[in-house]
Amino acid sequence: MASPPPATVDARGYLEDVRERVDRWLDAALPRAGTGPGRLAEAMRYSVFAGGKRLRPAMVLAACEAVGGDPRAALPFAGAVELVHTYSLVHDDLPSMDDDDLRRGKPTSHRVFGEATAILAGDALHSLAFELILDRVEPPTLACGLARDLACAAGVGGMVGGQVEDLASTGQKPDEAHLERMHAGKTAALFAASCEGGGRAGGGTPARLEALRRFGRELGLAFQIVDDVLDVTGTAESLGKTPGKDRRATKMTYVALEGVPAARARARRRLEAALAALATLPAPAALTALARYVVERDR
Amino acid sequence: MASPPPATVDARGYLEDVRERVDRWLDAALPRAGTGPGRLAEAMRYSVFAGGKRLRPAMVLAACEAVGGDPRAALPFAGAVELVHTYSLVHDDLPSMDDDDLRRGKPTSHRVFGEATAILAGDALHSLAFELILDRVEPPTLACGLARDLACAAGVGGMVGGQVEDLASTGQKPDEAHLERMHAGKTAALFAASCEGGGRAGGGTPARLEALRRFGRELGLAFQIVDDVLDVTGTAESLGKTPGKDRRATKMTYVALEGVPAARARARRRLEAALAALATLPAPAALTALARYVVERDR
C-alpha cells in the first residue's frame, strides 16, 4: 500500500464507506427489477437493500487491509457474503421458522411477496453468491478457496446447523453449551469465513488467515450475545425489529442464562479474545474499530 | 481409454450402475444420521435416498465418457448435481409452493420432518453441493468452472426462475413461450449443466462442451414434456407421485396446450434435436441410450 493506514479508524465512517462501495457492487450484480419471472428480482433486491449495516462486508474488506492487501480485491467476496447473510435472514424469518413480521424496520419478505417468492428469492441469493465469486474472482485457486469457505459457513456445520439448534432451543432450559453451539453456527461461522476470506483475498499467510478466523469467530460470538442483550434493552425503533421477541418466544438466550450484566461482561471478554488474535497482523486498525463497534452498538 | 466403448448401451443397466456408484459417494459425503443438530442430517438423507433415478448424475458420467474422459473424474460433480436437484424438489414440494404430499412414492420431506426442517435441509443440500465440488475437484480451474455452471443452472436464470414461472403459470391459459421458458429453467438448465460439466471433467474441447450443452438443453425440454404427458397417462404406482395433479392444480402443461399425441410428437422432435448435437462426439453411446430412455420411459 502507498501509505501506512491510520492508527485508529472511525467504525461508523468505515461502515458508511463500505456500504456505498458494496451497495454499488450489489446493485450491478443483482438482476434488474422488472426483469425475469414474477417478482423474483424485486424480492431479491428488497431484502438486500432493506437497510442492513453491511457489517460482514466491512469485516471482509477490513480483514483484507489487515494483512496489507488492497480491499478492491475482496469486493466480490464481500458482496457474496452479504447475499448469503441476506438469504439466511429471509429464510429464518419465514412463518415456519421465526415467523417475523419486521426486519431492519421493514416488513419481512414473505409479508410483502408471499411465502413462495420469499423462499425462492432466498434460494436465488444463495446460488448467486457462489456464481459471483466463481465468475468474478481471479485466480481460480482464490475463487475456489473463498467459495469453499463460504459454503462451509453456510451449511450444516454453520448457519443452517445453527438455525436448527435455534429452533430446537425454543422452550428449553438455557444451556451454555447449546447456546455457544447455536451462536457458533448462526453467526460466528460467517464472521470467521468473512475475516478469513478477506485475508485470503489480501494474500495473507496461513498463520494470518488462522488469526483472522479466530478473530471472526470470537467476534461473532460476542455479536450474538449483544443481540440477546439488545432484544431486552432495545426499542423497536433502534432495532428495526420487534424487541422482547426472544422472551415471548421463550428462545434460549444468554440473558435468560445469566442476566443482562453477566451477558454484557461475557461479550466484552469475547471482544478481548478477538482483539488478542489481531496482535500479529500488520494493519488491524479497521478490524479493531469494527470489533469495538459490534460490542458497543445499541442496534 | 483402453478399449472403444460399446456401440449401444442398455440405459437401465447404466442407470443401475450409476446409482450404485453415486449413492456410495453420496452416502460418504452426507452428514451421518444421528450427528449434528436436530433431525437435519436425517432429513437431508431422507430426500437424497428416497429413490430417485439418478438420471442427472448418469448424464454427467455419460457426458464425461462421451468426450473420451474417465467418468471417475466426474463423480463429485455428479453427486453435487444430484444434491442440487434434491434440494430443489424439497423446496418445490413445500405447502407454499406445489404442496405435494408424495414424492418418489414416499411422503415429502415437510410431511415427515415439518416445514422448517425441510426448508433447512434443502438449504443445507444446496450449500453442500458447492462445498463438495470445491473441496473434492482438482485442479481449481475445473472446480471453479463446474461450480459456476451449477450455480448458474440453480439460480434466477435456471431452476429458481423456472419455479417462479411455474407458480405464475397456474390457472393461466397455456402459452407456448411461457411453457418453454418455464421448462428451460426448471429442468433444461440443470440437464445442460450436467452434460457440459461432465464433458468439462472429461477434458472436452470448447466445441464439444457446447455440443453437450445443446444436447442437455434439448433433452431437458423433452424430459419435461414427457413429464406433462405422464401426469395424464401414468398411475400413482408407476409415477411415485399423485397423477392428474397438474390438471387439478390447473398447471400450464403441454398436454393442456396441444393434447397428448402432439405433446408426445414434440418430445420426440426434441429428442432428435438432442441426438443430432451428439454427432461430433467420440463416444456418445451411453448418452444416446439415456436420451432415448428419457423420452420412452413410463415413470
Q: Can you give me a brief rundown of this structure?
A:
The first copy, chain A, contains 14 helices and two strands. With 299 residues, chain A is mostly helical. Chain A has a single domain (11-288), classed as Farnesyl Diphosphate Synthase.
Write down the domain tally of chain A: 1
| Average residue pLDDT of chain A | 93
| Largest beta sheet: strand ordering of chain A | 1-2
Taking the sheet with the most strands of chain A, its summary is: 2 strands, antiparallel
Specify Rg of chain A, calculated over alpha carbons.
18 Å
For the terminal residues of chain A, how far apart are their CA atoms? 34 Å
Named at the architecture level, the CATH assignment of chain A is Orthogonal Bundle
- By secondary-structure content and strand pairing, the structural class of chain A works out as mainly alpha
Q: Of all protein chain pairs, which has the greatest interface, and how many residues does each chain bring to it?
A: A-B, 50 and 50 residues
Give the overall silhouette of chain A. Answer: globular
Strand content of chain A: under 5%
Which ranges of chain A are low-confidence, i.e. pLDDT below 50, for 5 or more consecutive residues? Answer: none
CATH topology of chain A: Farnesyl Diphosphate Synthase
Give the helix level of chain A as a range of percent. Answer: 55-70%
**The CATH top-level class label of chain A:** Mainly Alpha
CATH superfamily caption of chain A? Farnesyl Diphosphate Synthase
Oligomeric category: homodimer
